[in-house]
Amino acid sequence: MIKKKVQRLLDEIENEYIYTRRMTGKGKLDPRVKSAISSVPREKFVAMDYIDNAYDNGPLPIGHGQTISQPYIVALMTDLLELDADDIVLEIGTGSGYQAAVLAQLCKQVYTVEYIAELAEIAKSRFKKLAYENIKVKTGNGFDGWPEHAPYDGIIVTAAATHIPDPLLKQLKPGGRMVIPVGQPYFHQELMLVEKDENGELAVRDILGVAFVPFQGERDA
After folding, report:
1. Range of the domain at 89
2. Cβ neighbours of residue 115 under 8 Å, at least 6 residues apart?
């Protein structure tokens, strides 16, 4: 039954890739990302009240005004990072832990920061139960990143900021990529891809209109 639900979800993600290809530049899901989505048991990352909807292609509440993201968006953001097996990734906004679990299938190490302490502890417990040994969680303000482990090959932000935090730009390795939704809470937001070249120069590209919960703890500088 679960296998059928997973396959249906993958088919829906593939169809959405085709539908949005002119905006995203991606008409096909990377097979490695597809495998990662397949291998992570999404039902372990949702509340019991929503267990029957775990493999729907939509966001679900996780408490504290937060959500587990739509699987298509998880796949797309992961895909845009273009990760290699030896990469080190920073995630801002652990939430349920689902996005970090997907990333962990594709890279060497994931460091993830969660603003809400209770969500961080729940995610930490899930990772331990599911034996995700290459994910480290801390409670903190994601605006500051996690400088102790910088620079990062990839940075992914799972909440909408009004601007791209400068500390995160500084912690992105030359040659690295950042995916972040930017815009006003509950209004228009744009998923952005930030690329830093080997000389440290930045290129920013709008990818797709999105709707994320607000970035917690954001500052002007």
Report:
1. 2-210
2. 93, 139, 140, 141, 142, 216, 217
Domain presence at residue 75: yes
Count how many domains the chain has: 1
CATH code of the domain containing 48: 3.40.50.150
Residue 41 in any domain: the answer is yes
Catalytic residue of the set 38, 69, 96, 125: 69
- The pairs formed by 57-61 with CB atoms below 8 angstroms and a separation of 24 or more are 57/9, 57/12, 57/13, 57/16
Q: Which residues pair with 176 in a beta bridge?
A: none
78 lies in some domain = yes
Report in angstroms the alpha-carbon separations of 73 from 22, 99, 121, 150. Answer: 16, 10, 24, 25
| Cα separation, 54 vs 69, whole angstroms | 11
Give the pLDDT confidence of 47-99 residue by residue, as tens digits.
999 999 999 999 999 999 999 999 999 999 999 999 999 999 999 999 999 99
Judge if pTM exceeds 0.90: yes
- Quick: pLDDT tens for 150-167: 999 999 999 999 999 999
Residue 102's closest CA among 153, 27, 45?
Answer: 45
Residue 39 is among the residues annotated as catalytic for this protein: no
Pairing of β 60-63 and β 66-68: antiparallel
- Does residue 215 lie in a domain region? no
Helix axis angle, 71-81 to 2-24, nearest 10° = 60
Q: What would the two tokens of residue 25 be? A: 């530049």
